[in-house]
Amino acid sequence: MSVHPIIAALRKHKAGTILIAAQIALTLAIVCNAVFIIGQRIERVHRPTGIEENDLFLIQQQWVGAPSGDDPAGAEKLDAKLREDLAALAALPDVAAVTPINSLPLLNSSWNGAVALKPGHGDFDGKARTTYYFADERLMATLGLKLVAGRAFDAGDVQHRAFRDQSVAPVAMLTKALADKLFPDGQAVGKVVYFDGGSTPSTIVGVVERLQVPGTGSWTNSFTWYSSIQPVRLNANFSRYAVRAKPGRLAAAMRAAVPALYKVDPMRVIDDKDGVRSFAEIRQSAYRADVGMAALMGAICLVLIAVTAAGIVGLTSFWVGQRRKQIGVRRALGARKVDILRYFQAENLLIAGAGTVLGIALAIGLNLLLMKYFEMEHLPVPYVLAGVAVVLALGQAAVYGPARRASNVPPVEATRSV
Amino acid sequence: MFGYYLDLALRSLKRNKALTALMVLALALGIGATITTLTTLRVLAGDPLPGRSARLFYPQLDHGPREGYVPGQSEPDMTMAYPDAMNLVHARRATRQAAMALAQAKIVPQRANEHPYFTNGVMTTADFFALFGVPFKYGGGWTADDDERRAPLAVIAEDLNDKLFDGADSVGRTVRINDRDFRVVGVLKHWAPQPRFYTQGLGGRSYGDGDAVFLPLQSARAARMGPQDLECYSNLTDINHIETEPCEWLGVWVELDDAAAVASYKAFLDGYARQQVALGRLQRPSTALRDMMAWLRHVQVVPDDVRMQTYLAFGFLLICVVNTVGLLLAKCLRRSREIGVRRALGATRRAIFGQFMVEAAIVGLAGGVLGLLLAELGLWGVRHQPAEYASLARLDLGMFALTFAVAFVSSLLAGLLPAWRASLVAPAPQLKAA
């Protein structure tokens, strides 16, 4: 089939041709970028935190009238209270393990600092941002972390100190990502690091495979996997407990936890809403905005595609109606039905092809604009190619109905005066 | 004549029900999406204190190190260290001035069987209420003297007053906060400016409910309340005494009545920064003095996602309009013969043009009505999102009018090309073909 008659015909329908091409171009530009945003959000939501998330929940509470913990005697009292709580939780029939902890991945409550290879302030050599986790020796069992080198903390490593005390534990564990950044040779265990530009060394005893930081905002993007863990029970007038329920017993363990704590000491605040939360809830609330945005973008894409398809159907139908006589003449001169069908399909392919060329340029332009004003990465080529394929397929699907109707125009139409 | 066009347009629209429905629906979707996102954006980027915001300014100083300082380019810090905030407040160079930080306040109810709970508090200085025009239901604020005396006084919000005192005039009564007794001196009327401008930079939410407790800064600190956000720019020795540590945690707002006052305050601020540099307390002399709306833009209080959605919605509307142009064009060219007959019978080009514009306008109005319903539906969806601004998303009268303006204008724009093409139809060939 020659393209020439198609182009000659389209010349007579400049406005309609340009409109369809423009609509396809705009649709391609928006759909490409929207799908890219969806892809990014989905990727973000599905990255593993490094912990075993099932059967895990978090309790946060605050004691009323407790000492401040700023003097040693107060810290001792708080630690006694903390250990009582831990014992009570560990004794529950549905609880497998429990650890005091200052935060959890995705909790968006974090204590951030820096870790360096050399002591002292102002030395930025080998320094990396990190988030601190403080927990006891049952951390690995409770969170289900994977040890990849060295050893986990044992009970002898664990210290306790006041929350506001700035001292550093003599031993620490790092995530593999952080260990590899500080020690590119991969030999972190046994080496010494300094936290927060301090001068107290901490020896790395073990490396865990993965542990995400609590923050999920974009400001944490540069250190998402750079967690460090110190074997410390922090003593303050508030505390958090990560609790692993026995398999399948999460709900029961969560129900039993609050009464058990009130039994130990009724003078405390446990928020009805945020006091006890399963990790699934924590995850959900951390990524709610991302999931919402992805859903919205998805909806916009679908509606856009539907509107564009409808526009193509409408205009092509009109063209078919307008050209009934010409189609009849072609049929009378020997064109088969399939030739007529192919003609309209080729015509659409030509228009959509022109539209996609413009659309690719628009998609890239829009992407650059979004990059300028928002946190956005370069639009990868596969997204553009997929968008082009979708838009071309959409055009063919939309034109099929009207083209079929055109191919059914009988040759006798040629003899009628329209 | 208009009535006749209307009749013609309605007849024509009825003839192609599917096509008409498609045009109206596409336009309505575009308008619905645009109005939904615009309303959300407008609420989020709104003026928290209309009539007052232009006189409120947020001074900033820079505690960064000398390294990396580029004169005229380094952006000063979001918050201030205690000595600087207090110096600015005590200098009284503005009409009014207040320093503030946010803190969690632990409320211990005095009645039996009620658990203690946390609520949002503000630690601030005496001018806060007059500065922001905060309305009182009972009593009033405290004085600068009370600030200095560390008087254990409190101003509470209406909600908290309802909860603790069943809405009675509680001035003079005691509320237990962070295990200390505070005497209530004032109860606010509902006060929740949106966005919550004074929480920006202090680690607070940007939208949502107002705060429940307002305490004099130094008495709150005496009750061991800590700021929500604390940035330390050098090593700490004692985190309990952040007043003397190299930490920033306070925001300062000042009221300046005219341009001269603004210029003179900026000069004062610059002078203060230079003086502190000379004293060695600061390393960088850069300052900033933004008015409220500029400050809110600077901290990008409107979430990125919301702004992006608005742009996308406009793109969406553009596609819908292009789509409507195409369909209207198809429709009107199909009626070339009818146009030819009308022209032959004496209708002018203007008349044909008018007739098709009326048809486009009807599509636009129908699209607007449907778009309004879709926007209400969209906003209902926004309200049921878990975002902190969710409950604010409501259509107001201005947006209601804007919906129709957008619908009308976009449909007229969409109608221009088809109507113009229609008016160009020459009568003779059409009649001959028939």
From TrEMBL, chain A:
It holds the Pfam family FtsX. Residues 34-260 form the MacB-like periplasmic core domain. One of its GO terms (cellular component) is plasma membrane. It is found in: Cell membrane. InterPro entries: ABC3_permease_C, MacB_PCD, Macrolide_Exporter_MacB. The chain crosses the membrane at residues 18-39, 293-321, 349-369, 381-400. This is Putative ABC transport system permease protein. Its main location: membrane. Belongs to the ABC-4 integral membrane protein family. It is a multi-pass membrane protein. Residues 300-411 form the ABC3 transporter permease C-terminal domain. It comes from Fulvimonas soli. Keywords: Cell membrane, Membrane, Transmembrane, Transmembrane helix. One of its GO terms (molecular function) is transmembrane transporter activity.
Automatic annotation (TrEMBL), chain B:
Pfam families: FtsX, MacB_PCD. Keywords: Cell membrane, Membrane, Transmembrane, Transmembrane helix. The chain crosses the membrane at residues 311-330, 351-375, 395-417. GO terms for molecular function: transmembrane transporter activity. Residues 313-422 form the ABC3 transporter permease C-terminal domain. Residues 20-266 form the MacB-like periplasmic core domain. It is found in: Cell membrane. The keyword Transmembrane applies. It is a multi-pass membrane protein. Signal peptide: none annotated. One of its GO terms (cellular component) is plasma membrane. Its main location: membrane. This is Putative ABC transport system permease protein.
